[in-house]
Amino acid sequence: MRVPCSVKFVHMADIHLGYRQYGSEERALDFAQAFLRAVKFAIERKVDFIIIAGDLFHKRSEMDPATLAQASKVLEKARKADIPVVAVEGNHDSTYFRDSYSWMDYLAAHDLLINLKPSFDNGIVVEEWNGQNGSYVDIGDARIYGMKYYGSMTEKVLEMYAPKIRKGGFTVFTAHVGIEGYMNIYGCIPASKLHRLKGRVDYVALGHIHRSFVEDSFIFNPGSLETCEVSEYGVERGLFYVEYDEKLKYELVRFKGRDFIVLNINIDEEGLSGLEEKLRKFKAEKPVVHLSISCKRETKRNLGEEAVKEVVKEIDPLVVKTSWSVSDGIFTPVLDNRKDIEKGVIEQLVQNYGYGNIADEVLRLKSIFSSSFDIPSVDRFIESILEMRGGEKEEKKKSKEKRKRERKSSTTEVEVERQEEEVWDWRRAYDKGGKTRKH
Ligand SMILES: [Mn+2]
């Protein structure tokens, strides 16, 4: 006999709280605001529960008070509305080889979320959530199973996990794992391994890949809420609002985040006025600007990076990133670009991990390791990086103060919208440079 069930929920993933993208605190606030918006949406729709399929946080160990406050303040909103939040840990949330206490466990200990993961004791243990630990939980007409990120062990763990799944009403399986063929990142498995859960599971709720996709109305991946790297900008991403009433209905809900402007320009041909013209065509509020500039080596030398940045400053950007591709003439051998290309690839790869721009250092390490595995020179090199980073921090601080002084007020429509949006105390405290205000 079929038991009728009716379920309503929101499925989100890859929130990356605490990500100071480009070293910008404003960007970290964008990620928090995106999370707040998503949870408020769920509350407005009066859902039965919220699923967070991993990567709530950007960093797994170094937590700072502002980030923790962002997470708990928003999760408290859901708790006040009596909406349970069911989560699993992503690669950014936990160390997956050792089973240590994570910040997600901490939030679970404060009744702010249900952190589902199997345990291991002579094989896999899949038990009901007891308020502290567990792999599945029953909420209303739904049962939700969770599996955290296991990296290269994912397939093995899933193989052990799958036979333990027992259908209970509308059954969800949520995991932080990617599917091969969507994005070339680590931690993906073939889709077939999950399609095999059909019959026992009604909805597979994934996270990890930062773009949305749906397979067979069975596997769902919403993508990241904010733009974690420039290549994600403009990609379909959002959260899934799902209703089940003997029939599955879902929609991808998108929210507008920080504006990005991605531009290619040949300065020799178009000049700085060409750049100005191109920039003016965008209607963006305090955007992140990525400029790929190509020109002759001579032009770069004569013009300099600052002149280009001055032009971009006209549109009041939040961040300006430039990458130059210079040539000495028509007959520049392609191989000359190899280093740039390699550097570009590494920049893209490490950008997502919050280490800042360390492409040069990675390349240098690569050359040390590929010439000879010489530990003393590795040590020396690491030490020199650490010294350099110390200096950079000072400089960043200075330029931040300068930026603050230069900040202009703008009154575009988007700005008004933002002001109307509910803003937390931590955001204000942050704007004041972290100083506590008297009430
Ligand atoms: Mn992620």
List the helices and strands and how they pair.
Layout: E1 6-12, H1 25-44, E2 49-52, H2 65-80, E3 85-87, H3 103-109, E4 114-115, E5 119-120, E6 124-125, E7 136-139, E8 142-147, H4 154-161, E9 170-176, E10 178-179, E11 188-189, H5 192-195, E12 203-207, E13 213-215, E14 219-221, E15 239-245, E16 248-253, E17 260-266, H6 267-280, E18 288-296, H7 297-303, H8 305-313, E19 319-327, H9 338-351, H10 359-371, H11 375-406, H12 413-420, H13 425-431
Parallel strand pairs: 1-2, 2-3, 3-4, 8-9, 9-12, 10-11, 12-14, 17-18, 18-19
Antiparallel strand pairs: 1-15, 5-6, 7-8, 13-14, 15-16
Bound molecules: manganese (II) ion.
Manganese (II) ion binds next to loops.
List keywords for this structure.
single chain, 439 residues, alpha/beta, Purple Acid Phosphatase, chain A, domain 2, 3 domains, six-stranded mixed β-sheet, 13 helices, 36% helix, 21% strand, globular, disordered C terminus, binds manganese (II) ion
